[in-house]
Amino acid sequence: MEAAPDTVGERERAVGVAVPGQPVRDYPPYRGSGLRHPRQSLVEIDALADPEAVELSGPVFGVTDVTDLDADLTRQHAGEPLGERITVSGRILDRTGRPVRGQLVEIWQANAAGRYAHHGDQHRAPLDPHFTGAGRCLTDDTGRYSFTTIKPGAYPWGNHHNAWRPAHIHFSFFGSAFTQRLVTQMYFPGDPLIAYDPILASVTAPEARARLVAAYDPELSSPDWSLGYRWDVILDGPSATWTEEGR
């Protein structure tokens, strides 16, 4: 039986990093990291001969235009989902602080009980018939996005003995093509499981880890309706938000 990992500290940080502040491709405390990056040479696509070939397998939530309903995960079914209603909003910026306009932002998450609406999730927590856990929106002219959703619950994930993921929301950002996709995770402040999460611990620089945790923002909260969290994302540069792609 494997021992649970220590809190984020010098033992985890002693693992070498290829890029300062960014995790290595194989991070032993996060056992799945060895399966989450290419081991073969990339396949070259002749974009001149077939410019649309790179888009054929691109993932997307929905096949229609993005609407306001896509950004409110609490209104996508006939009834109200269970759980704590929250608003998550922020700005998508480039390395110079300029807003990234018209950016497709997608999210997916577990429900309030910590279970995904996916056949691969067999966690013994209840499914919510009124919550699918997937949404999308486009950033406005100031680079701002906004989602209304339910705060996700923690769930076991089998990485080590008694391993539980802290509450988190997966984010995906697209540029002008699917090949420019970036994927990351947003965490919640004050979560005691954060200190024990190997995925977050693989981001070895404390300041980079801190950029993955949202901040409670009363200005984003709605009276008698939802709690507000602010999470800004920088797509590139030395202060870039950590992403799962290309690291």
UniProtKB/TrEMBL annotation:
- What's in the keyword line of the UniProt record? Dioxygenase, Oxidoreductase
Q: Does the keyword Transferase apply?
A: no
- Keyword Disulfide bond belongs to the record: no
InterPro entries, from UniProt? Answer: Intradiol_dOase_C, Intradiol_dOase_core, Intradiol_RC_Dioxygenase, PCDO_beta_N, Protocat_dOase_b
GO BP annotations, alphabetical order? 3,4-dihydroxybenzoate catabolic process
Quote the PROSITE patterns the UniProt record gives. INTRADIOL_DIOXYGENAS (PS00083)
Annotated Intradiol ring-cleavage dioxygenases domain ranges read: 88-116
GO MF annotation, one: ferric iron binding
EC number from the UniProt entry: 1.13.11.3
What is stated as this protein's family in its record?
A: Belongs to the intradiol ring-cleavage dioxygenase family.
Under NCBIfam families, the record lists: protocat_beta
Protein name as annotated: Protocatechuate 3,4-dioxygenase subunit beta
